[in-house]
């Protein structure tokens, strides 16, 4: 790692030919990234895919003009120099880190790519005293700014109101399938299924520390189980529900949160104070579940509240009766 850092060259040490070669390789990389984005989006967001196709073509055009300029000034052989060879040069995220992100995040990443390139060339131009190099870097900065304006034009051409609305609906649907549904299932399981063991232990022992330990074990165990079950039972390829690890994370974390919510009050030594607070938290959890169902699943709030509160009340009563008996 240290060797890789020390082998990098400073930008100020590059001559004009090397700067031009660096610009050529950067344009080539960016075109490849935009095409990867287009392929990632083509199935669900064809209008946005067309935007990235157009941006890739723009990068190709700039690269061709830069190659022509290099041939005119320095000949046919272009030095092999890339971003990672230059200390302080802006880096691009690997495509595999971005390809599973939501549409708006990918658009924001593309916009950041253009801003990074423009800002770097402007800073580099200000730091040089050579007039020819300064002019070259200024031209490159202007080209990057032109990419952003061209991207805006492409969005206006390919993404009309209907396409934008359809892509927004598709993005919302994917968010619900990947995050909301598994998280909601986990929250319901963690909030409701742990009521019986926690309150049974509480009323049976009236020992707050023992109740907390049982509640923590039940919550963490249920979270691990729900998380692995969600991740393992559906890889998301056929169902379109997205990354199994994202779904598993959402389900596992929310299951644990749902159970720990009414386990944590038993850190309070006084039994009835802890139990009263735990009951209040259970009420808040159940109403939060009903609110999420209403907001994201379009379930009527009254019906969602009745279902959740009734189910929670039955489980709580079972735990209290078993513990009290």
Describe the overall structure.
- Helix content is 78%, strand content 1%.
- The chain is built from twelve helices and two strands.
- The relative contact order is 0.09.
- The protein starts with a helix and ends with a helix.
- The protein has 325 residues and is an all-alpha fold.
- The longest helix has 33 residues, at 161-193.
Secondary structure: elements and pairs:
Blueprint lengths: L1 H5 L2 E2 L5 H26 L4 H29 L11 E2 L7 H4 L4 H25 L3 H28 L2 H33 L1 H11 L2 H26 L10 H18 L9 H26 L4 H24 L1
The chain-level structural class is: mainly alpha
Main β-sheet, in a few words?
Answer: 2 strands, parallel
For the largest beta sheet, what order do the strands appear in spatially?
A: 1-2
What is the string of helix and strand elements? HEHHEHHHHHHHHH
């Amino acid at each position: 790692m240290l060797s890789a850092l020390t082998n990098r060259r400073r930008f100020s040490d590059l001559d004009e030919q090397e700067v031009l070669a660096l610009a050529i390789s950067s344009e080539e990389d960016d075109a490849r990234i935009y095409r990867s984005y287009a392929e990632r989006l083509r199935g669900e967001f064809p209008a946005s895919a067309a935007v990235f196709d157009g941006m890739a073509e723009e990068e190709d055009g700039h690269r061709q003009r830069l190659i022509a300029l290099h041939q005119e000034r320095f000949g046919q052989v272009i030095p092999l120099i890339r971003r990672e060879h230059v200390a302080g040069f802006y880096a691009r995220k690997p495509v595999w880190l971005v390809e599973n992100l939501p549409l708006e995040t990918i658009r924001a990443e593309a916009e950041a790519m253009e801003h990074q390139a423009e800002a770097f060339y402007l800073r580099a131009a200000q730091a040089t005293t050579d007039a020819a190099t300064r002019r070259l870097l200024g031209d490159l900065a202007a080209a990057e700014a032109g990419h952003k304006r061209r991207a805006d034009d492409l969005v206006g051409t390919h993404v009309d109101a209907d396409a934008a609305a359809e892509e927004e609906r598709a993005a919302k649907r994917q968010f619900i399938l990947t995050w909301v549904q598994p998280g909601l299932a986990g929250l319901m399981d963690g909030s409701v299924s742990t009521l019986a063991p926690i309150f049974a232990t509480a009323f049976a022992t009236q020992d707050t520390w023992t109740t907390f330990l049982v509640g923590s074990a039940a919550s963490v165990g249920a979270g691990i189980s729900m998380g692995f079950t969600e991740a393992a039972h559906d890889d998301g390829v056929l169902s379109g529900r997205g990354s199994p690890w994202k779904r598993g994370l959402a389900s596992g974390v929310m299951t644990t949160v749902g159970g720990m919510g009414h386990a944590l009050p038993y850190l309070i030594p006084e039994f009835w104070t802890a139990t009263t607070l735990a009951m209040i938290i259970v009420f808040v959890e159940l109403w939060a579940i009903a609110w999420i169902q209403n907001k994201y699943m379009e379930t009527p709030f009254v019906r969602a509240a009745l279902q959740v509160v009734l189910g929670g009340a039955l489980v709580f009563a079972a735990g209290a009766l078993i513990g009290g008996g």
